[in-house]
Amino acid sequence: MVESYLLRLFNQPWDKVPTCWVDFETTGKRPGIDRAVQVALVRFENGKPVAATSTLINPGVPIPAEATSIHGITDEMVDGAPSSHVWFSGDEPRQLLDGAAPGAFNAPFDRHFMPAGALADHTWPWLDSLSMVRFVDRFAPGKGRHKLEAAAARHGVKLEKAHDAASDARAAGELFYLLGQRIFTGDVWSLGKVLERQRINDIREWSRFCSWILSQPPRENG
Q1: Alpha-carbon span 123 to 167, nearest angstrom
Q2: Could you say which DSSP state residue 220 is in?
Q3: Which of 162, 175, 185, 219 fits a disulfide with 149 by CB distance 3.0 to 4.6 angstroms?
Q4: What are the CA-CA distances from residue 165 to residues 53, 73, 168, 210 (Å)?
C-alpha cells in the first residue's frame, strides 16, 4: 500500500519535492545478476543538494577486471565493506531517503540494485535525468552523447569524477533541476505530471529507436 506521504508528494510542485539521487557502481551491466560495489545518495531540497553519503559495498563475489577498468574498484578495496542490505538499514541512508522521491541517471538500471526494504514503496516510479537528456538533446550529434559525462559537459554541470558513485549521483540530480527549468514551464507542474511526462518521453524514445533499427539494412551473415 502506498504510504500517505508519497501521495502528498505526487501532487506537490515538482521543484519543491525533496529528492534523493542514487548511483551504484557494479560488477557489471546485468541487473539481477551483477551486484553493487559502491553506492551514493545525494538529497536535494528546493533544487539544491543538502546532504550526501556514499560507501563501498562488498558484493560477495569477485569483481571482474572489465568492471574495475571502468570504476577502479578492486576486491581488496571492498574487503571488509558492508553488504548493500546492511548499509541501507543504517540511519544515514534512511534519513536521506525519508520523504524524498528517488531518482537516478538511467533509473531503470540503478533501481534494480536497491535492496528490498530500502524504500517505503519499492514500486514507486523513479525520476530519471537520462530521460530528460534524451528529450532535450535528441538532436545532439555524436556517439555517446547521452552518457552522463557527455551530458554534464554539454550543460555545464560539474562532474568531478565519472564512474564514482558520489560524483555521478550529484551530477544526475543537478541535471534534473537544470533541465527541468527548461522543460516544465507554463502551468504548475506537479511531481505526478513530471513522472507522467517522463513515461511518455520514454515510450517515444523507444519508438524512435525501434523505427531506426527497422530502417537499417540487414546484416550479412559470416
Answers
A1: 26
A2: P
A3: 162
A4: 10, 11, 5, 31
C-alpha 103, offset from chain centre: 5
Burial track 142-180 (b if 16+ CB lie within 10 A, e otherwise): eeeebebebbbebbebebeebbbbbbbbbbbbbbbbbbb
Question: How many residues are recorded in the chain?
Answer: 222
**Any idea which architecture 4-215 has in CATH?**
2-Layer Sandwich (3.30)
Letter for the amino acid at 100?
A
Residues 141-167 have pLDDT tens digits of: 878 889 999 999 999 999 999 999 999
State the Cα–Cα distance between residues 128 and 196, nearest whole angstrom: 12
Sheet holding 48-56, edge to edge: 48-56, 36-45, 19-26, 101-104, 127-128
C-alpha cell recorded at residue 211: 523505427
Which band of pLDDT confidence, cut at 50, 70 and 90, is reported for residue 1? very low
The residue-averaged pLDDT of 170-179 equals 97
Does the pLDDT value for residue 2 go beyond 70? no
What are 95-127's pLDDT values in tens digits?
Answer: 999 999 999 999 999 999 999 899 988 888 999
